[in-house]
Fold these 3 entries.
Entry 1:
Amino acid sequence: MPLLRARRSVERIRSLANGARIEAPRLTIDQGVAKDLFLSQLFCRLTDVEAHELRAKNQGYYTICSAGHEGNVALGALTRATDPALLHYRSGAFFLARARAASNGAEERAGVLELLLSLAASADDPISGGRHKVFGSVPWGIPPQTSTISSHLPKAVGMALAIDRMKKLGVDGGTSAGAMPTARDSIVLCSFGDASLNHSTAQGAINAASWAAYQKVPVPVIFVCEDNGIGVSVRTPNGWVEARMKAMPALTYVFADGRDLSDAYTKTKQAVDFCREKRKPVFLHLATERVWGHAGSDADGEYRSKDDIARAEDNDPVLVAAQSLLDAGVLTGAELVEEVDRALEMVKRLSAEAVKRPKLTTRAAVMESIAPSHQSAVLAEAKRAGYAPMPADADKPKTLAHSIKAGLGDLMRKYGEMIMFGEDVAEKGGVYGVTVGLWKQFGPGRVFNTLLDEQTILGVAIGAGQVGLLPVPEIQFLAYLHNAEDQLRGEAATLSFFSRAQLKNPMVVRIAGLGYQKGFGGHFHNDDSLAVLRDIPGVLLAVPSRGDDAVKMMRTLVAAAKVDGRVAVIVEPIALYHTKDLHAAGDNGWMFPLPPQGEAIDVGEVGVYNGEARDLVVFTYGNGVPMSLRVAKKLAAENVQATIIDLRWLAPLPAEAIETYAREAASILVVDECRKSGNVGEAIAALVAENPALRAKPFARVASADSFIPLADAANLVLVSEDEILHAALAVAGVKTHASAVVTTVAHPS
């Protein structure tokens, strides 16, 4: 049935040349422009029909089509390749019009072929290499989107904010790896459906643009709501989109009828010109139709009446445009048939070519674009010195918080395109004072506050990085990340994967987190799980335990973002921010001087304490490092010599170093301060179990309970304690003890 409806839509266009007629609006735009727009619409429709033909032959794998949304063709024709366009999955006509406009008509064939290669999941697809069906092109300024349920709107806002900010900072676009090409008057477009408008992510992004514009901050973005009145099977109330968006302050609302070629073009031009000249956000409400079902597998007759389906087919934008062109004398009936036949022949020929093109055939080929790394170049960049003097007090021992602040200042001097932002990071300097003074030092163009919305914070980072800045956003508490984790998982980390590593959104996300905070409880301010970050392919995750390490690791993370376009996260242990002592009050044993420029810690390089010990090796990180060092002192009194390994890097886990030190030790202990389930301890246990040389060794792990963290001293009941570490260490090392501890101990982890 879907295939028959698809074929019928083409036959109805043909029938207009043979005397059939429908009501159509009068053409009021330039006839040459109108014909070009129609041809892009026609090629889009025939490609959509071919998508159903390929699916029927099991040669194509995607049938969410653009049928009824072809009014977005006007946006493709009226914008430039330097206007980043984040497209809805029904924006095929836009894609083909942008290809035509970017090449003065020369890319008609190329645009169609790219769509067909994507439908056929071919490794030759220029944008995704067969990893997904997407609208995307680097030369045409279209970064790929794999989900358009509004998750791409926050980064569209970030791009728009960054374009004008770069001008003020004197930063040219493209200074970082894989940046989108932009011009100084570029605007950003993002298209989405009316159902997606109700998603919290869409509302947050549009609110953020409105919030910024209300304060006279330039935000040249056009939100394009392609409104067909229905989301899969859920109706959008009549008038809802208009009423909702007209109520937004500092947001210009423009309505265009995408079923009327002239109105779509005229109103779209108004929106584009206003956004480009005034640098203000615009909401373009584009009326469309859903001519077919949601996808090829969707039996829309179950929730749409026959009259509703017939009405949508009568309002088919391609059909209506063809009638308008015939009425205006732009095409004769014979010329219309000739154009349909020519386009159909090209689509069929290119489709036959696309299905024969190579597919992805190996795991390595699929994964090669996740996060390509040039580690030696990254380390060289991290160690590059001589760009600015170090602070006069660099040799004075500092806490973790003071070291991070100094390290960030040093990096801001090194990279003029680096920006820092988040809740309270500017004048206040963050909840814990880590960024205090940097706002005054570098100015509000580079250090600034955002509104209280983590999706916006990460979206701004993604967008800013994608057009050439080097963003270092702050998430105020680790648990707050869960409000926005899909911005990392579904947007930031996937861009390289779905663009064959052609496009990147470099960033280093700073997150204050982990347990052991005095006077804090609750699941929002005191969180002890990193599982959500370790689960994202390609993300670098660093957890420093001391100030000098933090500075050296940040140098590497920022260099990885700069050189490789990496998405990186550094989780800063809140409880260690202002810790001075290690063993006794006043010993200042956990304060360290700033490392000189030229020193950096490579990804996978662990910290080693008492490396010659052979009785026991303890693998830990964050708060677990000073805790384990204190325990090691007590172990020595029991004649157990322990090597303490600060893992530092939790994704990817430094497996080679773990195996090396585990082989050299008689027994193995993991001290995982996070919850027992889903965190580092499990990963190391699996690594040991899978290694024949290690699995016979005595092994134990201690971890916090699978619990939220309560307030005050009750927190100590669920967090790992030094007593637990001590008793587990003695037990796994074979020293008899009568003390009890809640530990997991196994001789054979397999």
Entry 2:
Amino acid sequence: MNLKFRRLNPIKLQLKLTILIMFLIVFSTGISSYFVSRFEFVRLEEKIESDLYNVAGIIADTPLIQKNLYEKNEQAIQQYVEHQLESLIDVEIITIADMEGIRFGHPNSDRLGERFVGGDELKVISEGAKYTSVATGTLGRSVRAFAPVYYQNEQVGFVMAAHLFDDVLLARRNVELNIIIYTLIGIVFGSMGAIVIAIIIKDNLLGLEPHEIVQLYREKNAMLKSLHEGILAIDDKGLITMMNDSAIKILGIKDTDVVGKHINLLFPTSKLLRVLETGVAEYDRGQKINGAHVMTNRVPVLEGNRIVGAIGTFRDRTEVVAMAEEITGVKQIIEALRANTHEFMNKLHVIMGLLEMGDDSSTKAYIIDLKESHDMIHEMVVEKIGNPMISALLLGKLNRAKEESVKLYLSEDSSFKQVDDRLGSQVVIIIIGNLIENAIEAIKRSNQSNGMVDVYLNDLGPEIIIQVTDNGVGIEASQISRIFRRGYSTKPGSNGIGLDIVNANVIRLGGKIEVDSEVGEGSTFTVTFPVEEI
């Protein structure tokens, strides 16, 4: 049974922020409300106890109560109690009793003459102490405050002022209700604020989600590392905000901690500040920075119509020229011309030497031999190769190989009469020139005296074939996949772009390139182009 799971869409950033902020608001408000309510409850209880304590103390110190309690004047005491209860708000019970606990004042006159109920009065009777307690009396559970009554320095009884516990609970509920109302109001306005903040943050992030920002960051880092161009960015104050590894390498910077420094301190000849001032982009400008000759492009960074920075991209000028020569095939033609010139000068020097020696017969024989050899090679190449530029390249490579004591052969069964316009002689020159040059270099590294390079060209069948074989050092199997990468080379001083350009042209034209190599035996590079797909 196959189970398929659909990946759930990630929660949007705006919703995440809203939920997070609302959670924080609810959590912090709830914690605050809890402690506020605790504080208010304690404050309420302390206030009630304090009020009761004060009322009980004031009544106990009243001379009227002291004298009448001493004289057991129940009527006078009861009238006083009833009068006080009418004027007091938070005191529902006032009880006045003698040392036996017999009531002489009570909210309910029917309870007069009865013994005090609750059991918490013993301390005020026995010790004459002032205190508060919670107990249940005839009117219900209440918070009580006790105070002793003295007459002529002798305790004659006590006063108890009380607040019914149900009323205390009601007051606490009112406090809770107010706190809940204000808490809900805070949560509502806080939630509205959370939504507004989330919208503002999302707008500031250009509407991007976190995973999109992370992806952009990763892509940016990957692009910066993959680029051979140096990249240097500054903000509107001229402070460096970014510099990639290629820029550090091209400019030869040792201290890589450049972010945050002013560009004039590190690169006084930089023209990025001019772009900041003018807002005009500059392209393909030659420049010297830190002693490096570069070709640079400079553009402003805009936010709306405001310039907020500038970015410069640049490449080593020498590398640009070398790449241009590789791409256009000019390098191969120049190498062929140089080799031809060198070979011609060598032969000319031999002729001049023979003439100076006065050996006319040897001179004539040498010239005739040169002519016959030249005619033979020229006839062989021209007969098999119809394109004059490719013929010139091969003749130049013959001389180049001779300079390196390498024998270069054009296979007898080769035939390359004309080049398809869609393929172009320039592409063929790039491919043949680079493959022959690499073969010669491979033989040079093998340090052998019988180096040979065999070139085979054929355009008679359904495929155009370009094949170059050498008996050089060969290539390890693990390295074959790397030789077509830009920058990879085993030749000292090489920029490693020759085979990369060859491979790019082959792929572009729908062809393929195969490598057959064995370490110590040599290599064969075979390039084929289906004629109908070119």
Entry 3:
Amino acid sequence: MTTSVSETSVLIVGGGPVGLTLAMCLAQQGIAVTVLEQRPPGEPPSVKCNHVAARSMEIFRRLGIVEEIRDAGLPPDHANDVAFRTTFAGREITRIPIPCRRDRYTSTDGPDTWWPTPEPPHRINQIYLEPVLFRAAARHPNIRIESRVSFERIERNSQQLIIIAKDIEGNETRRYGAAYVIGCDGGRSQIRGQIGASFVGDPVVQRVQSSYIRAPGLLHRLEVDPAWATITMNTVRNGSVYAIDGRETFLVHNYFRPDEEDFDAVDRDRSIRQILGVEDGFTWDMLGREDWIGRRLVADRFRDDGVFDRRVFLCGDAAHIWVPYAGYGMNAGIADAENLAWLLAAHLNGWAPVSILDAHEAERLPITEQVSRFAMSHAEKMIRARGAVPAEIDDETPEGMAARAKAARSAYDLNVQQYAAAGLNFGYYYENSPLIASDGAPPDYTMGDFTPSTVPGCRTPHIWLDDGRSLYDAHGPGYTLLRGDPAIDVSALEAAMAAKGVPFDVLDLDTGQDGDSAVVYDRKLILSRPDRHIAWRG
């Protein structure tokens, strides 16, 4: 039994996308991090999240790994469209156009090409994303990844937290000393149990059979261009099919009807055939399968209540899980990670008191509630839509044509909100935060729409500067004062920041020009935080 203690500033339990992003955000700010992960080094996860949102891609841009991520996943010219068909190989009803990654920075066609960001979304499955994140984290000198290690419990002494873990291969006990512990260990989080937090919400929203298959001949069945996602609409079996490698591997979701509750009672093979629209002679290889229940559950707190001196936090699925509409399960966790990272680094680097950490739960818990309810509402609408597919949807008759036209309009209008979710990406704001000097009500947002605003708490609106740079690239690593008039004397603020050791930059903006930037940046002084949310304006 090992008795020595390995020391680190922050210990993260869980080496998935959220844990690895948190580790890199901390390490970039000079914090020593240890990550405990049960899987072997770099082992891909099961096929789960298929989408990296724009806000997550912005974070990866700041970490310097966005190109590596952008180059992974589907082939460069594979459509990222969302198609709606009677079956995968059947009649197409409508589609939502989304540019392939080759054209992602230049395309002007489609509902999400106007987004105010230097980094548009990226359609990539987690099996390709996570290895990129692992390699990037493993090569960082401030990060130590301990693979094949299983967390057991947290103990507390007078100076730090002691984490007890098990070496899975050698069956030896390991001990780690850390100032802070972060649970990024998923929906069945042991850390959540350690701090006595509980999930609250809706335990059952829908039931889904997921099958990861290799079907080399499937694309040859199509009479139309392939898509990234294909949603099936018929009266027999509704599901969705996601392209994984763009050639022969696919993820098939079979959405149960409300009267179906027993996973074993639903024939998986037959359901896949009904969703794909193929005959009994068509074959595929089953690469993986999972039966799961979509839920809306949010932890009642994201931090221990004092049992560990308030030094233990939750991020990602350990803090919240919900039906994965709008692709915002993993992406909300990545947003958690960035939020907690800059707050922890501010304290550990000595320029902020421990009370700055109160902002994490105050900011992220309300956002989690908002986003999860958007996803919940959308899930309910989708369930109703699946149950309302008309019997004549595939008929070659005037009635069939009319049914398809009506279905096309409703399917597009409903789903463009989740597949081009500008509101969830850019509209959410922080209220009642100790780090926000509120001076007005932020504009409301929906899943699909938002209004850029400089009201404190809102996302710092993105613009392209006169020299061609992204505002976010010109933004400093700490607080940045965006100044609309270089004649304004800000030396007193600069001196105050310097006296406290707060990382601080001044960036002059040309907001006198015509156009959207002049309208959005209607104040001469805007203080932007490290996470690109506005703290104050004047």
